[in-house]
Amino acid sequence: MAGNHNRPMFAPLRNDTFLRACLRQPTTHTPMWLMRQAGRYLPEYRATRVKAGNSFMGLATNVPYATEVTLQPLERYALDAAILFSDILTVPDAMGLGLSFGAGEGPKFAHPVRDEAAVAALQVPDLDKLRYVFDAVTSIRRALDGRVPLIGFSGSPWTLACYMVEGGGSDDYRLVKSMLYGRPDLMHRILDVNARAVTAYLNAQVDAGAQALMVFDSWGGVLADGAFQRFSLDYTRRVVAGLQRHKDGQRIPVIVFTKGGGPWLPEIADCGADVVGLDWTVNLGRARAAVGAKVALQGNLDPAVLFAPPEAVAREAVAVLDSFGPPQRADGGWDGHVFNLGHGISQHTPPEHVTALVEAVHAHSRRLRNPG
User: Fold this and answer.
1) What is the sign, positive or negative, of the torsion defined by CA atoms of 131, 134, 138, 143?
2) Residues sharing a CB contact under 8 Å with residue 259, sequence separation 6 or more, in sequence order
3) pLDDT digits over 289-330, tens only?
4) Domains along the chain?
5) 87 is catalytic
6) Rounded CA gap, 81 and 296, in Å?
7) Cα 154 to the center of its chain, rounded Å
8) Residue of 20, 36, 141, 238 with catalytic role
9) d(CA 201, CA 217)
10) Backbone phi, then psi, for 245, in 5-degree steps?
11) Which residues are registered as beta bridge partners of 343?
12) 163 catalytically annotated
C-alpha cells in the first residue's frame, strides 16, 4: 500500500461467469453482454443524456452520468458484465486532435493527421487528460458493488488511425489508405504512437478497476489481406503483449474484436488475446472447431435480429448457442463462449426484445449443459 494511497478498494465479485467463460473455465450458463448496451435504445439513457446537455461527451466526461448510464442496462436486464461508458476516440482527443460530435452527426476531428508535420508532432498523450475515464472506471466498479465484472476498452491502433487521418467516419477510407500505400512510413509512425498510447490507456483502466479489457478493431475488416496483418493485427498484438494481465490475484482477460475479421480468424486467435470476438458473418461452430482450444469466442448474433418479434429473437439466440454447442468437450475440458451481438446494438431496438434475448440465452445455455 505504501506510495499508493489512492488505491481503490472494491466489493468481492458475486457473478464471475463472464470472466470464467473468457478463461475457458466451467460455467453454469453462457454469460452475455451487448456491445453498446448502454445507449440510445433505452429511454432512461436518453433522459440522462438530456440532463448532460444532450451531448455524448457531456455524458462520457461526467463521472456520475457515465456511472449512471453504465448501470442502466443492468437494472433492466440480467446481463453478466458491464462495459465502461466511453468512446474509442478519447485517446486521439487527448492527443489534441479536437474531437466534437455534431447534433445528429458522427464524430469529427478539427485537426486530422494528414501530412508529415502532423504525423511528426503526434505523441502518446498525457494520461492525466484521460483522468475522467479512469475516475469513471473506479466509480462504476464501486457502484456495481460486485454484481458483475466491469470491462474496460479501447479502439485498436488501426481503427484510431482511420478516424485520425480521415477526420471522422468514412465510406471509402480513401485518405487513410492513400497514406498506407503511398507513405507507409507515416502510417507506421501513427500506428506506433497509437499502440503505445492504447497500451498505457488500457493498463490505467486496469489500475482504476477494470476487470477485463476489450480492443475494438472496428475497421480491420476494410483492409486487404496482407495489409491487415501489417497495419492492424501486428499493432493489436503489440498492445496485447504490453497489457497488465493480473491484478489483485485475478487474471484480466483480453478480448479482441475485428469486424470483418472472419478470413483471418486463426491469425487473430494467435495475437495473445484470451477471447476473439466474431461478427455475424462467421459460423460459430466452425470457428470453435478451428480455434476453440486456444481462445474463447464472443458473439455473434446479427443485431438486426432484435427488430424481429420476441419469439424470433429467442429462436435466433438458440441457433447461435446450438452452433457453438455444449461448451464442455468430450475430453472433459471447456471451450469458452460469451454471447454477444456481432456488432453494437442499434438505437432503434425495442428494449423488450432484449429481455427476450437475455432470457433465451440464459435458459437455453443451461439446457445445453444439463440436457436431462
Assistant:
1) positive
2) 217, 218, 219, 220, 221, 279, 343
3) 999 999 999 999 999 999 999 999 999 999 999 999 999 999
4) 17-263+273-279 (3.20.20.210)
5) yes
6) 16
7) 7
8) 36
9) 16
10) -105, 0
11) none
12) yes
